[in-house]
Design a protein that fits this description.
The protein contains 9 helices and 9 strands. With 257 residues, the protein is an alpha/beta fold. It folds into 2 domains: 152 residues, Alpha/beta knot; 69 residues, Trp Operon Repressor, Chain A (Orthogonal Bundle). The structure holds 6-chloroguanine.
Amino acid sequence: MTPMKFSILTIFPDMFTGFLEHGIIRRAMDRGLIDTGIINIRDHAAGRHRVTDDRPYGGGNGMVMKPEPLAGAIRETVNRYPDALTIHLTPQGRVFDQDTARELTRTDHIVMICGRYEGIDERICETLVDRELSIGDYVLTGGEVAAMVVIDAVTRLLPGALGGDHSADTDSFADQLLAHAQYTRPREFEGKAVPDVLLSGNHREIDRWRTESAMIRTFLKRPDLLTKRLLTDEETQLLKKWHMEIGRIIKNRGTNG
Ligand code: 6GU
C-alpha cells in the first residue's frame, strides 16, 4: 500500500519536527502508513527578503499572506500530485470532527495550507483551495497547530496505525458515544476500588458494564451526542432502567417546599 501523503505548507516548518518525531505519528511514518512533506512557503517568495506578508488593501490591523508565494507553493505540490486535496486551515472552515477525520482517511494526498496573521489573500481561497477546515470556535495564531490536529486524528484511524489488536473502534465518538471509564492497577488507589465486575472475568458482564459506563458518561458530559444518535435495544433498556430509578428517587424524597 502506498502511504497516505500529507504536504504541509507553512512559514514555520520547524513547528512540525517534534510532532512528527514521536509516538504513533512517528511509527506510522516508519511503517509507511503515512508520508509527510513540509514545504516552506518562504522558499517561494521573491526578492532578497523573501517577504510572505503585506498590509491589507483598505487598511486595518495586521498583515495578510501574499498570494504569489502561496500560489507557487501550492502549484508545485499540485502539479506533481494532481489528485491531491487542498485544505486551508482557517477558523472560517467547517468544524473538524471525527466523521470528517474518517472521511479524510479515504484521501490519498492532502495538501494543508497553514495561514498566519489576519489570513491569506482571498484569491488563493477562490482558485487553489478545495476545502476549508477549522478545529473549533476560537482563534489560533496560525493554521499549523490545526494541521497537526487533523493529521493526528486522521493518522490514528489508518489500519495498522495503533498497532497490535488495538483499533479505533472503541474510541470516544466511534459511534457517537464517549468512551467508557478505564482502570489499571492497583486494585485500590487512595481508598477507591476498581469496580468488581472488571475483575470478574465475565466478558458479557464486562461488556454490559462498559456500555452502561459509556452511556452514563455521554448523558452527563455530552447529552447533545445522545440525542443525535440511534439507540440499540440494550441502550434503550439502560435508559429505561435509569428513568425508573430516577423516578423512584424523586418519588421517595418527597418535596421540600
Ligand atoms: Cl484552522 N486556524 C486558525 N488560525 N485559527 C483556528 C483554526 C484554524 N481553527 C480554529 N481556530
